Amino acid sequence: MIYKYCGHSGVQLPLLSLGLWHNFGSVDDFDTASQMILHAFDKGICHFDLANNYGPEPGSAETNFGRILHDSLAAHRDEMFIASKAGHDMWPGVYGTGSSRKNLMASIDQSLRRCRLEYFDVFYSHRYDGVTPVEETMQALIDIVRQGKALYVGISKYPADKQQQAYDILREAHVPCLLSQYRCSMFDRKAQLGGLPTREDPSKSNFRIAAAGGSGIICFSPLAQGLLTGKYDNGIPAGSRIAKASAFLHTSDVTPERIEAARALGEIARRRGQSMAQMALAWVLSDERVTSCIIGTSSVAQMDNNLQALDNLQFTDEEKQQINEIIYKPELSF
User: If exposure means fewest CB atoms within 10 Å of the residue's CB, which of 39, 194, 278, 289 is most exposed?
Assistant: First the structure.
């Protein structure tokens, strides 16, 4: 495994981190989930990314992770960097969602119980909800650190202006933002560029603001929910996430333009001696501002395939030009 320092901190993270968004909930096979977590740790993936609503059912990914940690990895807690988040819908009633102090304080206590932990290494505000003042949310994160419930704090998916405001508040309180989490892939470059590929706006680039603010950047959905794996090149497989009516990827997302682009990118990957997924991961990691990339896997074999991306992280100028000619099109962006 290759490790990289996180922003202006002394924390190192693996270039590939394991996310438990899918495949680790109560509806999934527990033994497979356990095998993936143990295999990841054996391969040097020491960073595990959770959120309170991951499942389904919401909360069950944390519960399963806590059981695996307790039964198999308890002696290695200090070798692990464990993250969780709160802010999306979690429990009934008006307090079970959003970025309020009420929600975050209740959420971290619940998450710590489910994970059987005394503290998280980093705890995120999972989103800016559009209502709660950033000052309120950041003060809750500051207090969470001061109460010893998390060592560091992070933000996820914050728009550029709120992102900068969050950094300023946290820095003034001497609890700087360790990590900023954004979606990024060859088909989704808004966080990186601040706009669509043909309409860049550096002032709104989440990556630029994070780098200037000393925050590490961690990317999720680097494979565009499977579109950058070649899985959908010949139609939608019966057992795929889209076929199961996923809330995050729809049949309308599998457009002819994206399929054509994925096939063209696959040809470049083959010339590089990589799978499409491996090249897509390498491409996200090729941005020097990125600390780590979150992978989501459904099997040990898939994890090993993703890990092989680390064998070839360099792109020639010709490859960069060829890739840019394919992906610099607004119709590909989400």
Answer: 289
